[in-house]
Design a protein that fits this description.
The structure is a homotetramer of 189-residue chains.
Chain A lengths: L2 H16 L6 H8 L3 H7 L3 H20 L9 H18 L1 H11 L6 H24 L8 H21 L10 H12 L4
Helix pairs in contact in A: 1-2, 1-4, 1-6, 2-3, 4-6, 4-7, 5-6, 5-7, 5-8, 8-9
Chain B binds a DNA duplex (21 and 21 nucleotides) through helix 2 and helix 3.
Organism (chains A, B, C, D): Thalassolituus maritimus
Protein name (chains A, B, C, D): TetR/AcrR family transcriptional regulator
Keywords (chains A, B, C, D): DNA-binding
DNA sequence: AATGAATGAGAATTCATTCAT
DNA sequence: TATGAATGAATTCTCATTCAT
């Protein structure tokens, strides 16, 4: 693998395991198998490295959420796919879930960068919501609000479970989760 | 005011504004109007100070959520009160919302402390959910799951809004919010 | 007891137990049952307190060495008394032995103060040595050298034993000790 | 010279001159001609540096005592060599004598480390004493007691002289010293 | 290009001393 | 007179960043 990516991966692992403030460049270098100076060939500052880590995380996150998405399927099926992808990804790759928690409060991650990290996902999801509203399927509330609410619900559920383990995964079936998510956005007459 | 509380308040402000890692004891001292050594009369370590900050935050958070709660009212009315309290509190006191974000990933905040911080709120909310389920009002899914989901939805909504300001508050009415929340937990035949 | 003496005693205990650098004024105050500020009524600085501690130690040391000394007895009997007093005192009051170790390297204890601390003891011992030499009993070497050598031997013996306990006290009888001491100073034809 | 040794040497000088507690890492750095952080590349803590300083001192001390020792010579000649080596070393290298005084009460120097520091010297001296006793030359008292007594006598003599200078060196000839030392351990019929 | 030793600014913490009460 | 809260200089130690090799 490229050294550039090797460094990013090492940083992901260490931040997820130890937290951002307990991850000095020197330990990244050790984990990546290179000298500390080498890291500065690829990233001008630690902040820039963190930004790269964030973008790499959001890429994985995005493609995990969109995996096996059938863009010709119904709105309901597409959202089901995305939500379950999200749910399973954060359950099965806690490293990335922890990483996201850490980075979401890091001063290095600006609002602009966050926007950029989410752009691709939004570009896919927004049209689905739009169509859903056209079909009279979802509430007359801005897409962002509904989408973010559901994302926040799912991710918070799993974060809570990580802190007090083993409650959610054994109890919450895929059907239950979808029932909650749809309840939140579905339009009722 | 007591110096003890003065220090806690100064710390709240600084962490909310600059983040936990950008809040050294020296700056807390300056903000609190005392010498750095003075802080160590009241808190043995910085970690202990952070713990006190967290507990003070959770107290405010809890009493804000339970404000004007009529414990004799219906399940629906009580949850409406709590959710709107939560929503308005986090919108109107962004300092505490930001603080909560920072502290939720702080190594100083152990799982046990988190449990303690949430205890009072849970002790009030859990019985409401229990009654709601007995009345056939809410889904047959553990209270924790539903409660955490809604909390996660609301708080994430507002966090997103803080990063890309002015979208939510002007658009999301109280009624919209409650419609989303109830949709997530309400049982439909 | 006088507060002045109470403070000195507390300091003795704490330095012997924890060492000089691990004995802050605040802990002396706690041990002496008074406020930290009170100590500064009796001693202008910590250094001055240490000096007082040293002098109080040397007083106890001196009177312990001279206990039951029969100034009309023979040179041999008098030195035997002093040496055994010294030996038993340092064995039975390890607090003072430890204290002496700590203070002997403290910057607060000047050469002049050391001289003052030892003055009374020297004033008694020197004439005995002088008489011993007149009687042809001891080597033609300055009193200081002989006296200090024997003192150094005994105190080092006990310090070593304190570090690697239980070797000396069970083995070295009073007769053995005197045989060593006298051997060191006694004149042989 | 190696930076590692440079730091140790600087520390030796400073502790001997100012005492252990008046030797902060910052001053060691200045004396060693490097940044404070550099010291922590070579020693994990200040305590570890002090330990290294102690071991380096004991190495010099040991080789000084054993210099020109003829292991085929008689017991008397060997002990004479060692005692005079010790005496001259501590007189001519007061820096190391002062250093030893400081370190002997340092909390950083554990009993185990002291044992390790003295091991080589003991390994050489003990057999000489054993042989001396077999030859009926020395008292029937444990080697440790006799050896430590003499060591304590010599070192205390020189310490006293350092505090009230110029008394001993001009007066105490090598012969006098040996007469005292042998007197202390020699068996008389 | 890669390294890792060196740097020094900045962090948490301690403690002798002061002073208002 | 006695107190102990308050102070801030000084200490140990960390770590992002640089640069000679």
């Amino acid at each position: 693998m490229e050294k550039h990516q090797l460094i990013i991966d090492a940083t992901c692992d260490l931040i997820a395991e130890n937290g951002l403030q307990a991850t000095p460049i020197s330990s990244v270098a050790k984990e990546a198998g290179c000298g500390a100076g080498t890291i500065y060939r690829y990233f001008e500052t630690k902040e820039e490295l963190i930004e790269a880590v964030y973008l790499s995380l959001m890429e994985r996150f995005t493609s995990a959420c969109l995996e096996n998405l059938d863009r010709t399927a119904s709105v309901r099926e597409q959202l089901n796919t995305i939500w379950l992808n999200l749910y399973h990804y954060m359950r099965e790759v806690p490293r990335d879930a922890l990483l996201l928690d850490q980075l979401s409060v890091a001063p290095a991650i600006s609002a602009a960068l966050q926007e950029r990290g989410k752009r691709d996902l939004k570009a896919t999801i927004d049209p689905i919501f739009t169509r859903g509203r056209q079909e009279g399927l979802i509430k007359d509330i801005p897409d962002d609000v509904l989408g973010v609410f559901v994302y926040g619900g799912i991710s918070t559920l799993l974060r809570t479970d990580r802190n007090a383990p083993c409650v959610v995964p054994t109890v919450v079936t895929d059907d239950m989760l979808l029932s909650i998510c749809w309840g939140a956005i579905e339009k009722r007459d």
